[in-house]
Specification:
about 240 residues; alpha/beta; Rossmann fold; 2 domains; six-stranded parallel β-sheet; about 25% helix; about 20% strand; binds pyrazine-2-carboxylic acid; binds zinc ion
Length: about 240
Amino acid sequence: MLDRRQILAALGTTALASLAPTALFAAATIKPDDTSALLVIDVQNCFLPGGSLAVKEGEQVVPVINKMAKAFSNVVMTQDWHTPGHVSFASVHSGKKPFETIELPYGKQVLWPDHCVQGTDGASLSKDLSIPQAELIIRKGFHKDVDSYSAFLEADGKTSTGLAGYLKGRKIKRVFVAGLATDFCVAWTALDARKAGFEVYVVEDACRGIDNQGSLAKAWADMAKAGVKRIQSADIAVSA
Ligand code: VGL
Ligand code: ZN
C-alpha cells in the first residue's frame, strides 16, 4: 500500500513531467528544412526609429530575425521601393494627410508619409541585419500608380512580383514571414502566400505593427481565417 507521502510524491512527479516540455522550457518544435523559406519583410530605415514611417519598436525585430535566420537555408528579403511622388504618398494628393484614405482605381488606399524612395538611405535595408545567406531581394511598390504591400501581388490584385514563381521553382512549400509592418506588408504577404498555396507561418515576436484604426487586430483575424499559423521565434529550432 502507498502511504499519503508516496502518493503526493508520485503526483508531484507526474505534474512536473507534464509541465516540463511546455512551461519550463521553450518548445522549439518547428524545424525548417530545404522546402522552407524565411521571408524578411521591409526591415528598412524608413520603418525604423528616426525613419519617415517609423514603426513602434521596429528595431526590436532585428536581433530576433538575425537569430531565427540561422535556422533557414533559404531566406528572401523584401524592400519597399517607391518612385518619387508615388501614389501612396499623402504629399501628392492635395488636402490629404498621412493615414487618411482615398479611392484609387484598384480600391481603397491608405496614404502614407513619403517613404522608401528608390535609392535613398531610407529605402536601404537595416545595416544591423545579419543574414549573409539571403538569396534574393524582392523590390515592390515600384510602379508609380500602384502600391504593393504584398511581396507576391501588387495592390491592383493582379500584377505579380514573380515571388511565387521563384519559390515554386526552388521547391519551397512553407514560408515563415517576419518583419515590418505586421498589419500591412507582413499580413498582405502572408495572405497572398496562402492564396498561392504555401503553408504559412507568421512569427509574431519577429514583427511589429503600425496599428492604424484597428488594422493590427483585423490583420491577425484575417490571417487566422486564411489558415496562417501564428507562432513565436522560440517555436523554431535553431541548431548550433
Ligand atoms: C508598409 C505602409 C506603406 C509596410 C509599406 O512595409 O508594411 N506599410 N508601405
Ligand atoms: Zn510603402
